[in-house]
């Protein structure tokens, strides 16, 4: 009988350092300009793979999330590798759900990165990226990590260089925002005249000229209207000394980035767990190191995506 190969990986959350929605596209998705950033808040995922003819996928999930994206990710990955086998997963959620932190997407991307390594197959980045896009608009970003500009549906990615280490606070008030509904609410407000301005001021963000044009998230307008408490969180973060405070994704989490650590501790104390988390921004270098370390027993060298040592 074959014995399983297993790993435990951390699936990091993301924040959007800027997010503009330009308009609805013919395929029903919206055209975006965004800056993705991985942060240190993470779920924990254990994956074990045992070769076999039949595909069997099992998930033990601390929250029993129905139709979990990790199961779909494992099924897609097995199909793409043209193999069967038993995939046993254990997921411990720490990233709040429905909060715009990309937790489910990150968990799914973690399966796409780890399973081929355990199964001894090669799926290159374009192949993984295609699977990621089938799973959701944010999944592709977690194949890259660090700081990246996302355009189109959010799946066309342009890596930005690693920036200085920065820390902050993510406040997740427990409000679950339905992303599709948030897009529907925002859509009627999008006009073609505003597009040019948005593209211009987004560009300024990417170039780091934040004084001339502050970062923004277009969803704040609609989501803050429905959940007034979120605007209050943003104000409170700014009062606590955050240099930037912004909602992430379609909400509901709001993050603040702080110039000094003492203020972070003070802000955290005033909220307390589990609604507020200290986070640091995770660069692409750190993201890859984290992955290489987690998979080192099963990989050869430091390539990206990680390559299996069992691949023939
Ligand atoms: O791709 P994902 O499944 O994460 O998206 C959830 C929903 O959000 C989509 O069904 C779509 O309604 C909306 N969406 C959008 N434009 C995007 C991303 C998501 O309209 N760029």
Strand content: 25-35%
How much is the average pLDDT? 93
Cα radius of gyration in angstroms: 20 Å
Helix content: 25-40%
Low-confidence stretches: none
The secondary structure category is alpha+beta
> What does the main sheet amount to?
10 strands, mixed
Keywords:
single chain, 9 helices, alpha+beta, binds cytidine-5'-monophosphate
Task: Give an account of the 3D structure.
The chain has 312 residues and is α+β, with helices and mostly antiparallel strands. 34% of the residues lie in helices and 28% in strands. It is built from nine helices and ten strands. A hairpin with a 3-residue loop joins strand 5 (147-152) and strand 6 (156-159). Helix 2 (103-119) runs antiparallel to helix 3, helix 4 packs across helix 6 and helix 6 (219-226) packs across helix 7 (228-239). It binds cytidine-5'-monophosphate (C5P). Cytidine-5'-monophosphate binds at residues 29-30, 32, 136-138, 153-154, 179-180, 183.
